[in-house]
Amino acid sequence: MNILFTSVGRRSYLVQYFKETLGDSGEVHVANSSSVSPAFLVADKSVVTPLIYDSEYISFLLEYCKSNHIDAVISLFDIDLPILAKNKERFEEIGTTVIVSDYETIEICNDKWKTFCYLKEKGIDIPVTFISLDDAISSLHNGCVSYPVMVKPRWGMGSIAVFEAENEEELRIFYAKTMRNIQNTYLKYESAVDIEKSILIQEKLKGQEYGLDVIDDLNCNYVTTIAKMKYAMRSGETDCAVTVDKPELKRLGEKLSCVMHHRANLDVDVFVVEDKCYVLEMNARFGGGYPFSHMAGVNLPLAIVKWLNNESVEKSVLTERVNIMGQKDIQMVRLQIEPQMNIGKILDADEAERQFLYFEKFLSPTLLERGIDIKSYAQKICSHGAILSCKNGIENPMGLLGMYVNDKDAYTAYLSFLSVDPNFRGLHVGKEMMKKAEKLALENGMRNFKLEVRKSNINGIAFYKYMGYEVIEEATKDSYYMWKELKEN
User: Fold this and answer.
1) What's the domain range around 273?
2) CA 459 to CA 431: how far, in whole Å?
Protein backbone atom coordinates (compact mmCIF):
# COMPACT_ATOMS: atom_id res chain seq x y z
CA MET A 1 0.00 0.00 0.00
CA ASN A 2 1.29 3.47 -0.93
CA ILE A 3 0.05 6.59 0.84
CA LEU A 4 0.54 10.21 -0.25
CA PHE A 5 0.49 13.15 2.15
CA THR A 6 -0.28 16.51 0.54
CA SER A 7 0.70 19.88 2.03
CA VAL A 8 2.89 17.90 4.42
CA GLY A 9 4.94 20.87 5.70
CA ARG A 10 6.80 19.93 8.87
CA ARG A 11 4.65 17.01 9.95
CA SER A 12 7.51 14.56 9.61
CA TYR A 13 6.33 12.68 12.70
CA LEU A 14 3.13 11.65 10.88
CA VAL A 15 5.20 10.39 7.97
CA GLN A 16 7.23 8.33 10.43
CA TYR A 17 4.08 6.95 12.10
CA PHE A 18 2.75 5.69 8.76
CA LYS A 19 6.14 4.30 7.72
CA GLU A 20 6.25 2.28 10.93
CA THR A 21 2.72 1.03 10.23
CA LEU A 22 3.39 0.01 6.62
CA GLY A 23 6.83 -1.46 7.22
CA ASP A 24 7.96 -3.30 4.10
CA SER A 25 4.42 -3.54 2.72
CA GLY A 26 4.26 -0.04 1.25
CA GLU A 27 5.66 3.45 0.87
CA VAL A 28 4.88 6.88 2.26
CA HIS A 29 5.06 9.68 -0.30
CA VAL A 30 4.86 13.37 0.54
CA ALA A 31 3.95 16.43 -1.49
CA ASN A 32 4.36 20.11 -0.77
CA SER A 33 4.41 23.34 -2.77
CA SER A 34 7.89 24.02 -1.37
CA SER A 35 10.78 21.60 -1.09
CA VAL A 36 11.79 23.27 2.17
CA SER A 37 10.00 20.66 4.26
CA PRO A 38 11.45 18.45 7.00
CA ALA A 39 9.06 15.68 5.95
CA PHE A 40 10.91 15.32 2.65
CA LEU A 41 13.85 13.91 4.61
CA VAL A 42 11.99 10.98 6.12
CA ALA A 43 9.53 10.03 3.34
CA ASP A 44 10.15 7.22 0.87
CA LYS A 45 9.47 9.63 -2.02
CA SER A 46 8.71 13.34 -2.26
CA VAL A 47 7.46 15.76 -4.89
CA VAL A 48 6.99 19.52 -5.22
CA THR A 49 3.47 20.40 -6.41
CA PRO A 50 1.85 23.47 -7.96
CA LEU A 51 0.19 25.80 -5.46
CA ILE A 52 -3.15 24.57 -4.13
CA TYR A 53 -5.17 27.17 -6.04
CA ASP A 54 -3.26 26.58 -9.28
CA SER A 55 -5.47 25.25 -12.06
CA GLU A 56 -3.03 22.37 -12.57
CA TYR A 57 -2.90 21.27 -8.91
CA ILE A 58 -5.46 18.44 -9.06
CA SER A 59 -4.28 17.25 -12.48
CA PHE A 60 -0.73 17.07 -11.14
CA LEU A 61 -1.82 15.00 -8.13
CA LEU A 62 -3.91 12.65 -10.28
CA GLU A 63 -0.99 11.98 -12.58
CA TYR A 64 1.35 11.44 -9.65
CA CYS A 65 -1.07 9.00 -8.01
CA LYS A 66 -1.41 7.00 -11.25
CA SER A 67 2.33 6.91 -11.90
CA ASN A 68 3.22 5.89 -8.33
CA HIS A 69 0.31 3.53 -7.60
CA ILE A 70 -0.97 5.64 -4.70
CA ASP A 71 -3.75 3.91 -2.76
CA ALA A 72 -4.72 6.76 -0.43
CA VAL A 73 -4.25 10.53 -0.15
CA ILE A 74 -4.25 12.39 3.17
CA SER A 75 -4.03 16.18 3.42
CA LEU A 76 -2.67 18.04 6.43
CA PHE A 77 -3.68 21.60 5.48
CA ASP A 78 -7.07 23.31 5.89
CA ILE A 79 -6.98 25.10 2.52
CA ASP A 80 -6.20 21.83 0.74
CA LEU A 81 -9.15 19.94 2.22
CA PRO A 82 -12.06 21.53 0.28
CA ILE A 83 -10.15 21.28 -3.01
CA LEU A 84 -9.58 17.55 -2.50
CA ALA A 85 -13.14 17.00 -1.25
CA LYS A 86 -14.57 18.53 -4.44
CA ASN A 87 -12.40 16.25 -6.57
CA LYS A 88 -12.70 13.07 -4.52
CA GLU A 89 -14.56 11.16 -7.24
CA ARG A 90 -11.82 11.89 -9.81
CA PHE A 91 -9.32 10.15 -7.53
CA GLU A 92 -11.68 7.22 -6.98
CA GLU A 93 -11.86 6.74 -10.75
CA ILE A 94 -8.13 5.92 -10.80
CA GLY A 95 -8.34 3.70 -7.72
CA THR A 96 -7.11 6.21 -5.13
CA THR A 97 -9.03 6.88 -1.91
CA VAL A 98 -8.92 10.44 -0.61
CA ILE A 99 -9.32 10.33 3.16
CA VAL A 100 -11.22 13.56 3.54
CA SER A 101 -14.53 14.59 5.06
CA ASP A 102 -17.42 15.80 2.92
CA TYR A 103 -17.19 19.34 1.57
CA GLU A 104 -19.99 20.58 3.84
CA THR A 105 -18.21 19.28 6.95
CA ILE A 106 -14.97 20.96 5.92
CA GLU A 107 -16.79 24.24 5.30
CA ILE A 108 -18.23 24.19 8.81
CA CYS A 109 -14.76 23.67 10.25
CA ASN A 110 -12.83 26.11 8.07
CA ASP A 111 -15.41 28.91 8.30
CA LYS A 112 -15.36 29.84 12.00
CA TRP A 113 -18.63 31.78 11.65
CA LYS A 114 -20.33 28.68 10.29
CA THR A 115 -18.76 26.76 13.18
CA PHE A 116 -20.45 29.14 15.64
CA CYS A 117 -23.84 29.10 13.91
CA TYR A 118 -23.92 25.35 13.30
CA LEU A 119 -22.86 24.23 16.77
CA LYS A 120 -25.21 26.75 18.39
CA GLU A 121 -28.05 25.31 16.31
CA LYS A 122 -27.09 21.79 17.46
CA GLY A 123 -27.10 22.78 21.13
CA ILE A 124 -23.34 22.62 21.61
CA ASP A 125 -21.79 25.40 23.68
CA ILE A 126 -19.43 27.80 21.89
CA PRO A 127 -18.06 31.24 22.89
CA VAL A 128 -20.24 34.23 21.98
CA THR A 129 -19.09 35.37 18.53
CA PHE A 130 -19.80 38.42 16.37
CA ILE A 131 -19.27 38.92 12.65
CA SER A 132 -20.00 42.65 12.83
CA LEU A 133 -17.71 45.12 14.58
CA ASP A 134 -20.67 47.37 15.38
CA ASP A 135 -22.65 44.48 16.90
CA ALA A 136 -19.68 43.50 19.04
CA ILE A 137 -19.15 47.04 20.33
CA SER A 138 -22.87 47.42 21.05
CA SER A 139 -22.92 44.19 23.05
CA LEU A 140 -19.81 45.24 24.94
CA HIS A 141 -21.44 48.56 25.82
CA ASN A 142 -24.61 46.77 26.95
CA GLY A 143 -22.66 44.35 29.14
CA CYS A 144 -23.70 41.25 27.18
CA VAL A 145 -20.02 40.41 26.89
CA SER A 146 -16.96 42.00 28.45
CA TYR A 147 -13.35 42.69 27.60
CA PRO A 148 -10.96 41.18 26.76
CA VAL A 149 -12.21 39.83 23.44
CA MET A 150 -10.39 37.97 20.67
CA VAL A 151 -10.14 39.37 17.16
CA LYS A 152 -9.40 36.71 14.54
CA PRO A 153 -9.90 35.77 10.89
CA ARG A 154 -13.13 34.02 9.99
CA TRP A 155 -11.11 31.64 7.83
CA GLY A 156 -8.05 31.38 10.03
CA MET A 157 -5.26 28.95 10.76
CA GLY A 158 -2.90 28.72 13.70
CA SER A 159 -2.30 32.07 15.36
CA ILE A 160 -2.11 34.15 12.17
CA ALA A 161 -3.70 37.58 12.72
CA VAL A 162 -5.19 36.68 16.11
CA PHE A 163 -5.21 39.50 18.67
CA GLU A 164 -6.56 40.14 22.15
CA ALA A 165 -8.28 43.49 22.69
CA GLU A 166 -8.77 44.88 26.18
CA ASN A 167 -10.74 48.01 25.25
CA GLU A 168 -12.58 49.61 22.35
CA GLU A 169 -9.54 51.48 21.06
CA GLU A 170 -7.55 48.25 20.81
CA LEU A 171 -10.53 46.46 19.29
CA ARG A 172 -10.76 48.93 16.42
CA ILE A 173 -7.00 48.89 15.85
CA PHE A 174 -6.74 45.11 15.86
CA TYR A 175 -9.80 44.79 13.63
CA ALA A 176 -8.09 46.92 10.99
CA LYS A 177 -4.80 45.11 11.46
CA THR A 178 -6.44 41.70 11.08
CA MET A 179 -7.96 42.83 7.78
CA ARG A 180 -4.55 43.91 6.51
CA ASN A 181 -2.98 40.62 7.60
CA ILE A 182 -5.68 38.62 5.84
CA GLN A 183 -5.11 40.50 2.61
CA ASN A 184 -1.34 39.99 2.84
CA THR A 185 -1.28 36.23 3.54
CA TYR A 186 -2.71 33.04 2.06
CA LEU A 187 -5.80 33.64 4.23
CA LYS A 188 -6.98 35.94 1.43
CA TYR A 189 -7.94 32.95 -0.74
CA GLU A 190 -10.71 31.53 1.43
CA SER A 191 -11.59 34.98 2.77
CA ALA A 192 -12.33 36.16 -0.77
CA VAL A 193 -15.73 34.47 -0.40
CA ASP A 194 -16.84 37.46 1.72
CA ILE A 195 -13.93 39.74 2.47
CA GLU A 196 -16.13 42.37 4.16
CA LYS A 197 -17.23 39.78 6.70
CA SER A 198 -13.94 37.96 7.12
CA ILE A 199 -13.21 38.95 10.74
CA LEU A 200 -14.74 37.62 13.95
CA ILE A 201 -14.86 39.10 17.45
CA GLN A 202 -15.20 36.42 20.10
CA GLU A 203 -15.47 36.48 23.88
CA LYS A 204 -12.35 35.25 25.65
CA LEU A 205 -13.05 32.34 27.96
CA LYS A 206 -11.26 31.90 31.26
CA GLY A 207 -10.88 28.20 31.92
CA GLN A 208 -8.79 25.12 31.18
CA GLU A 209 -8.07 24.37 27.54
CA TYR A 210 -8.26 20.83 26.16
CA GLY A 211 -7.68 19.24 22.78
CA LEU A 212 -9.77 16.38 21.43
CA ASP A 213 -9.08 13.80 18.75
CA VAL A 214 -12.57 12.68 17.77
CA ILE A 215 -12.04 9.54 15.74
CA ASP A 216 -14.52 8.13 13.21
CA ASP A 217 -13.90 5.30 10.78
CA LEU A 218 -13.78 5.95 7.02
CA ASN A 219 -17.57 5.56 6.83
CA CYS A 220 -18.13 8.35 9.37
CA ASN A 221 -19.04 5.96 12.21
CA TYR A 222 -17.98 7.12 15.68
CA VAL A 223 -15.17 5.15 17.30
CA THR A 224 -13.67 7.08 20.23
CA THR A 225 -12.48 10.41 21.63
CA ILE A 226 -9.03 11.11 23.05
CA ALA A 227 -8.81 14.10 25.43
CA LYS A 228 -5.66 16.01 26.31
CA MET A 229 -5.20 18.85 28.79
CA LYS A 230 -3.04 21.57 27.26
CA TYR A 231 -0.10 22.92 29.23
CA ALA A 232 1.45 25.15 26.57
CA MET A 233 0.72 26.50 23.10
CA ARG A 234 3.05 27.78 20.40
CA SER A 235 1.96 29.51 17.17
CA GLY A 236 -1.62 28.38 17.73
CA GLU A 237 -0.61 24.72 18.11
CA THR A 238 -0.41 22.44 21.12
CA ASP A 239 3.17 22.38 22.40
CA CYS A 240 2.80 20.47 25.67
CA ALA A 241 -0.13 18.32 26.83
CA VAL A 242 -1.16 15.33 28.92
CA THR A 243 -3.84 12.72 28.20
CA VAL A 244 -6.76 12.75 30.64
CA ASP A 245 -9.86 10.72 31.38
CA LYS A 246 -12.80 13.16 31.46
CA PRO A 247 -16.17 11.54 30.65
CA GLU A 248 -17.77 14.90 29.79
CA LEU A 249 -15.21 15.42 27.02
CA LYS A 250 -15.78 11.89 25.73
CA ARG A 251 -19.51 12.63 25.57
CA LEU A 252 -18.85 15.90 23.76
CA GLY A 253 -16.66 14.09 21.23
CA GLU A 254 -19.39 11.55 20.51
CA LYS A 255 -21.95 14.32 20.05
CA LEU A 256 -19.63 16.19 17.67
CA SER A 257 -19.16 13.01 15.65
CA CYS A 258 -22.92 12.66 15.43
CA VAL A 259 -23.44 16.18 14.05
CA MET A 260 -20.26 16.53 11.96
CA HIS A 261 -20.15 13.16 10.13
CA HIS A 262 -16.39 13.48 9.55
CA ARG A 263 -13.85 10.87 8.47
CA ALA A 264 -10.84 9.74 10.51
CA ASN A 265 -9.74 12.56 12.82
CA LEU A 266 -11.60 15.68 13.93
CA ASP A 267 -9.21 17.94 15.82
CA VAL A 268 -11.15 20.01 18.38
CA ASP A 269 -10.15 22.83 20.74
CA VAL A 270 -12.27 22.98 23.91
CA PHE A 271 -12.41 25.25 26.94
CA VAL A 272 -13.89 23.92 30.18
CA VAL A 273 -15.31 26.73 32.30
CA GLU A 274 -17.00 25.76 35.58
CA ASP A 275 -17.64 22.21 34.30
CA LYS A 276 -19.18 23.51 31.06
CA CYS A 277 -17.49 22.51 27.77
CA TYR A 278 -17.18 25.13 25.04
CA VAL A 279 -15.98 24.24 21.55
CA LEU A 280 -13.58 26.87 20.28
CA GLU A 281 -12.53 25.53 16.87
CA MET A 282 -12.49 22.33 14.82
CA ASN A 283 -10.22 20.99 12.07
CA ALA A 284 -11.30 18.08 9.89
CA ARG A 285 -7.81 16.55 9.70
CA PHE A 286 -4.86 15.37 11.76
CA GLY A 287 -4.18 18.28 14.11
CA GLY A 288 -1.11 19.42 15.96
CA GLY A 289 -2.35 17.63 19.06
CA TYR A 290 -2.43 14.13 17.57
CA PRO A 291 1.20 13.24 18.49
CA PHE A 292 0.23 13.38 22.17
CA SER A 293 -2.49 10.78 21.54
CA HIS A 294 -0.03 8.64 19.60
CA MET A 295 2.51 8.83 22.42
CA ALA A 296 -0.22 7.60 24.76
CA GLY A 297 -0.75 4.42 22.75
CA VAL A 298 -3.32 5.47 20.13
CA ASN A 299 -2.39 4.31 16.62
CA LEU A 300 -4.72 6.01 14.16
CA PRO A 301 -2.34 5.40 11.22
CA LEU A 302 -2.62 1.64 11.83
CA ALA A 303 -6.42 1.93 12.07
CA ILE A 304 -6.57 3.85 8.79
CA VAL A 305 -4.46 1.24 7.00
CA LYS A 306 -6.67 -1.54 8.37
CA TRP A 307 -9.85 0.31 7.32
CA LEU A 308 -8.43 0.80 3.82
CA ASN A 309 -7.83 -2.97 3.71
CA ASN A 310 -11.39 -3.64 4.96
CA GLU A 311 -9.97 -5.18 8.13
CA SER A 312 -11.44 -4.85 11.61
CA VAL A 313 -9.64 -2.65 14.13
CA GLU A 314 -9.12 -3.97 17.64
CA LYS A 315 -10.25 -1.64 20.41
CA SER A 316 -6.73 -1.55 21.86
CA VAL A 317 -5.40 0.14 18.70
CA LEU A 318 -7.36 3.31 19.52
CA THR A 319 -7.25 3.18 23.32
CA GLU A 320 -5.14 5.76 25.12
CA ARG A 321 -3.21 5.55 28.37
CA VAL A 322 -4.05 8.48 30.63
CA ASN A 323 -1.58 10.80 32.35
CA ILE A 324 0.95 10.52 29.53
CA MET A 325 2.62 13.89 29.06
CA GLY A 326 4.61 14.99 26.04
CA GLN A 327 6.23 18.11 24.68
CA LYS A 328 7.23 18.95 21.14
CA ASP A 329 10.91 19.30 20.44
CA ILE A 330 12.96 18.46 17.39
CA GLN A 331 11.56 15.04 18.24
CA MET A 332 8.70 14.17 20.58
CA VAL A 333 9.88 13.94 24.18
CA ARG A 334 8.16 11.78 26.81
CA LEU A 335 7.86 13.65 30.11
CA GLN A 336 7.32 11.96 33.43
CA ILE A 337 4.58 13.50 35.54
CA GLU A 338 5.69 13.84 39.15
CA PRO A 339 2.70 15.04 41.16
CA GLN A 340 3.05 15.94 44.80
CA MET A 341 1.97 12.97 46.92
CA ASN A 342 1.10 13.19 50.58
CA ILE A 343 0.73 9.70 52.07
CA GLY A 344 -0.50 9.56 55.64
CA LYS A 345 -2.38 7.33 58.06
CA ILE A 346 -6.09 7.64 58.73
CA LEU A 347 -6.71 7.11 62.43
CA ASP A 348 -10.40 8.01 62.66
CA ALA A 349 -12.80 5.16 61.80
CA ASP A 350 -15.50 7.52 60.51
CA GLU A 351 -13.05 9.20 58.13
CA ALA A 352 -11.83 5.75 57.07
CA GLU A 353 -15.40 4.72 56.30
CA ARG A 354 -15.90 7.83 54.12
CA GLN A 355 -12.69 7.09 52.23
CA PHE A 356 -13.60 3.44 51.68
CA LEU A 357 -17.00 4.49 50.34
CA TYR A 358 -15.27 6.81 47.87
CA PHE A 359 -12.59 4.39 46.65
CA GLU A 360 -14.46 1.08 46.70
CA LYS A 361 -16.41 2.05 43.55
CA PHE A 362 -13.18 1.78 41.55
CA LEU A 363 -12.89 -1.93 42.41
CA SER A 364 -14.47 -4.83 40.56
CA PRO A 365 -16.32 -6.29 42.32
CA THR A 366 -16.85 -3.51 44.87
CA LEU A 367 -16.89 -4.11 48.62
CA LEU A 368 -20.65 -3.58 48.63
CA GLU A 369 -21.10 -6.11 45.81
CA ARG A 370 -19.16 -8.59 47.94
CA GLY A 371 -21.56 -8.02 50.83
CA ILE A 372 -19.01 -6.29 53.08
CA ASP A 373 -20.31 -3.85 55.69
CA ILE A 374 -18.00 -0.90 55.13
CA LYS A 375 -18.50 0.65 58.58
CA SER A 376 -17.45 -2.56 60.33
CA TYR A 377 -14.67 -3.11 57.79
CA ALA A 378 -13.19 0.35 58.45
CA GLN A 379 -13.34 -0.11 62.23
CA LYS A 380 -11.68 -3.53 62.01
CA ILE A 381 -8.72 -2.31 59.96
CA CYS A 382 -8.30 0.75 62.18
CA SER A 383 -8.14 -1.56 65.21
CA HIS A 384 -5.88 -4.27 63.80
CA GLY A 385 -3.91 -2.62 61.02
CA ALA A 386 -3.37 0.63 59.19
CA ILE A 387 -5.14 2.71 56.54
CA LEU A 388 -3.01 4.87 54.26
CA SER A 389 -4.43 7.77 52.27
CA CYS A 390 -2.63 9.39 49.35
CA LYS A 391 -3.59 12.93 48.35
CA ASN A 392 -2.07 15.41 45.93
CA GLY A 393 -0.90 18.94 46.63
CA ILE A 394 -4.44 20.33 46.67
CA GLU A 395 -5.75 17.55 48.86
CA ASN A 396 -7.60 15.64 46.17
CA PRO A 397 -7.83 11.92 47.10
CA MET A 398 -5.57 9.84 44.84
CA GLY A 399 -5.45 6.42 46.47
CA LEU A 400 -6.36 4.38 49.55
CA LEU A 401 -4.68 1.32 51.09
CA GLY A 402 -5.84 -0.90 53.95
CA MET A 403 -3.62 -3.51 55.63
CA TYR A 404 -3.50 -5.78 58.68
CA VAL A 405 -0.36 -5.98 60.82
CA ASN A 406 -1.63 -8.16 63.68
CA ASP A 407 -0.37 -11.64 62.69
CA LYS A 408 2.39 -11.86 65.31
CA ASP A 409 2.72 -15.64 64.89
CA ALA A 410 3.60 -15.68 61.17
CA TYR A 411 5.03 -12.15 61.22
CA THR A 412 3.02 -11.50 58.06
CA ALA A 413 1.24 -8.30 57.07
CA TYR A 414 -1.85 -8.71 54.88
CA LEU A 415 -2.97 -6.27 52.18
CA SER A 416 -6.74 -6.03 52.32
CA PHE A 417 -7.52 -3.01 50.13
CA LEU A 418 -5.76 -0.96 47.43
CA SER A 419 -7.59 1.40 45.11
CA VAL A 420 -6.38 4.32 42.97
CA ASP A 421 -8.69 6.98 41.51
CA PRO A 422 -8.69 6.45 37.67
CA ASN A 423 -7.77 10.13 37.20
CA PHE A 424 -4.42 9.45 38.88
CA ARG A 425 -3.51 6.09 37.40
CA GLY A 426 -0.19 5.92 35.63
CA LEU A 427 1.41 8.26 38.17
CA HIS A 428 2.91 5.51 40.38
CA VAL A 429 0.42 6.16 43.19
CA GLY A 430 -0.03 2.43 43.87
CA LYS A 431 3.73 1.87 43.83
CA GLU A 432 4.42 4.61 46.35
CA MET A 433 1.60 3.46 48.63
CA MET A 434 2.87 -0.14 48.59
CA LYS A 435 6.39 1.04 49.44
CA LYS A 436 4.98 3.03 52.37
CA ALA A 437 2.89 0.02 53.49
CA GLU A 438 5.90 -2.33 53.39
CA LYS A 439 7.94 0.12 55.46
CA LEU A 440 5.10 0.37 57.97
CA ALA A 441 4.87 -3.43 58.13
CA LEU A 442 8.57 -3.69 58.97
CA GLU A 443 8.16 -1.05 61.68
CA ASN A 444 5.43 -3.28 63.21
CA GLY A 445 7.70 -6.33 63.29
CA MET A 446 6.39 -7.99 60.14
CA ARG A 447 8.78 -10.04 58.00
CA ASN A 448 6.45 -10.92 55.10
CA PHE A 449 3.64 -9.31 53.13
CA LYS A 450 0.73 -11.31 51.72
CA LEU A 451 -2.22 -10.42 49.52
CA GLU A 452 -5.03 -11.99 47.55
CA VAL A 453 -5.69 -11.09 43.90
CA ARG A 454 -8.37 -12.28 41.50
CA LYS A 455 -7.10 -14.45 38.62
CA SER A 456 -8.95 -12.22 36.15
CA ASN A 457 -7.08 -9.13 37.39
CA ILE A 458 -4.20 -9.43 34.91
CA ASN A 459 -3.02 -5.85 35.44
CA GLY A 460 -3.07 -6.28 39.19
CA ILE A 461 -1.03 -9.49 39.05
CA ALA A 462 1.51 -7.80 36.76
CA PHE A 463 1.74 -4.83 39.15
CA TYR A 464 2.38 -6.96 42.21
CA LYS A 465 4.97 -9.02 40.34
CA TYR A 466 6.66 -5.74 39.43
CA MET A 467 6.67 -4.91 43.16
CA GLY A 468 8.45 -8.20 43.90
CA TYR A 469 5.50 -10.43 44.87
CA GLU A 470 5.14 -14.01 43.64
CA VAL A 471 2.14 -16.34 43.37
CA ILE A 472 2.38 -18.98 46.11
CA GLU A 473 -0.96 -20.83 45.94
CA GLU A 474 -4.60 -20.67 45.01
CA ALA A 475 -6.75 -18.85 47.55
CA THR A 476 -10.03 -19.83 45.86
CA LYS A 477 -10.94 -21.12 42.42
CA ASP A 478 -11.03 -17.45 41.31
CA SER A 479 -8.01 -16.01 43.14
CA TYR A 480 -4.34 -16.39 44.06
CA TYR A 481 -2.30 -15.63 47.16
CA MET A 482 0.82 -13.60 46.44
CA TRP A 483 3.69 -13.16 48.89
CA LYS A 484 6.87 -11.19 49.41
CA GLU A 485 9.64 -11.35 51.99
CA LEU A 486 10.25 -7.92 53.46
CA LYS A 487 13.79 -6.62 53.81
CA GLU A 488 15.21 -3.52 55.41
CA ASN A 489 16.62 -1.08 52.86
Assistant:
1) 208-337
2) 13
